[in-house]
Amino acid sequence: MIIFIYMCILALNIVAMFLTYHFLGKEMDKKTKGIFIIVGIAFIYMLVSFVYWIGTKDIELGTSENFGKNLITFTFVPVNAILILPFLANSYKNLKTGKLKVEPFRNRCILLAIILVILLVMEAFYFKEIQTGIYNMLQNAKISS
User: Fold this and answer.
1) What does the alpha-carbon distance between residue 78 and residue 10 come to, in Å, rounded to a whole number?
2) Which helix or strand (DSSP H or E) is residue 26 part of?
3) pLDDT band at 130 (very low <50, low <70, confident <90, very high)
4) What is the mean pLDDT of residues 57-66?
5) Is 100 exposed, middle or buried (0-12, 13-18, 19+ CB in 10 A)?
6) Which of 18, 20, 40 lies closest to 87, judged by CA?
7) What pLDDT is attached to residue 58?
8) In the predicted model, what is the mean pLDDT of residues 56-79?
């Protein structure tokens, strides 16, 4: 079961990277695309980790805490990346090619930031429930074996 979950997480990460790469267009060189993808995913990873910390700081889970944290973080990072990075990449591409002026680009970035904050706030409330569910699942697996 765990291997299946990790394979799905890997697939989500590949989809997030491919979509972002595709939306950056053919005009941009591979180095710039790679830097954009790495920085974007790293930024989202830091945000999700921070939101996870805020959302689960009141619960004590013992040894299963790291497993749950990794599972939740590595699941939500590509989901958030799929929802935000391709649109940011497309706007960035249009800015670099001159199809988009700085002010509309800034407005799009603000809109994407607002969407990301709304997502992260919803996730913060949800992380506590997910973490407790993972803990209960692991406890049941230990009792069964």
Assistant:
1) 9
2) none
3) confident
4) 66
5) middle
6) 20
7) 74
8) 78
What is the structure's pLDDT at 62? 61
Three-state DSSP at 59 gives coil
CA distance 143 to 30: 50
CA 15 to chain centre: 12
Residue 145, pLDDT > 80, answer no
Q: Find out whether 127 and 56 touch, Cβ atoms under 8 Å.
A: yes
d(CA 26, CA 96): 12
CA 60 to chain centre: 24
Q: For the packed helices 30-56 and 102-144, what is the interaxial angle rounded to 10 degrees? A: 50
Tokens 């805490």 locate to 65
Rounded Cα distance between 33 and 7, Å, is 25
pLDDT at 46 over 70: yes
Residue 111 pLDDT greater than 70, yes or no: yes
Residues 6+ apart with CB under 8 A from 23: 85, 86, 87, 89, 90, 93
What's the sign of the alpha-carbon dihedral 42, 103, 20, 35? negative
How many Cα atoms are found within 13 Å in the side-chain-facing hemisphere of 124? Answer: 14
